[in-house]
Amino acid sequence: MKVHFVIHEAFEAPGAFEDWVSTRGYQASYSRVYQQDALPATAQSFDLLVVLGGPQDPATTLEQCPHFNALAERELINKAISAQRAVVGVCLGSQLIGEALGAGFNHSPEKEIGKFPIHLTEEGLANPKFSHFGQTLDVGHWHNDMPGLTEQAKVIAYSEGCPRQIIEYSRLVYGFQCHMELTQGVVELLIKASEAEWVTPMDRRFVQQPSALRANDYREMNQKLFVFLDRLVADYSAQC
Question: Most Cβ neighbours (<10 Å): which of 17, 46, 98, 130?
Fold first, then answer.
C-alpha cells in the first residue's frame, strides 16, 4: 500500500496517519508544498491520497500564499478519484475534496480548537467503516470552516459546533473536518504556530487553552482512526 501525503505547513503534520503507515509496513511519499515540493502528476504512484490541513482555505490565492495552489490540488484529487484511488482529506483537505467535486466550502457556525465530542448520524451508525466509533466519540478539532456537500455526500458525524465533521463523498473518498490524527507532538507544533489565538482572553465555548490542549489524551481517537483506515484499505483492495 502506497500512501501519499500533501502537507501544507510543517505544523500541520501527518501525526497518527504516519504512525499508521509505519505500523502497517506501508510506503509513504510526500508533497510538502511549504517546501515547494511538486504534487504528483498522476494518481499512478499511490493507492491512498491524504490531503492534510492548513491555515489556508480553498479560496486562498497564489498571491496570498505562493506555496498553496488550490486549483492544482483539486485537480490531483479529481485524478485520484477518477483513478479509483482512496482519498482522505483533513480540515482544509476535506474542503478541497468538496470543492473538487463541485461543492463550495462554508464557514463553520463555531470555531473549534481542542478535544470535543462528535456524534454519529444514522448514516454514520449504519456505515461499517465507523461502527467502532459508537454514537459519540471525543476527537481533536482546529478549524473555522467546513466542507461543502455534494448531492451524493453523506454526513457521517457532526458536533455541537459544526454540522459537518465527517463526510462520505463515495465509498473510497472521505472528508474529516475534525483532526483525529492529532498527537501530543502535533498539538505542540500547532500551539506554537497559533500564538495569536491566545493573546487576548477568549470566551468561545469550543476553544481550549494551551494547558488543556496539552493535557488531552489523543490515543483513543488515533486508534479509532487506524481501524477506519484499515477498513478503507480493505474496501480499496477488494475493488482492486
Answer: 98
pTM of the model: 0.96
Cβ atoms 157, 120 nearer than 8 A: yes
Q: Does the pLDDT value for residue 153 go beyond 60?
A: yes
Domain architecture of the chain: domains with CATH: 2-239 (3.40.50.880)
**193-202: pLDDT as tens digits:** 988 776 555 5
What is the structure's pLDDT at 239? 86
Angle at which helices 92-100 and 70-82 pack, to 10 degrees? 70
User: CB neighbours of 42 closer than 8 A, spacing ≥ 6?
Assistant: 79, 83
Residue partners of 82: CB distance under 8 A and separation at least 6: 43
Strand 86-90 versus strand 48-51 pairing type: parallel
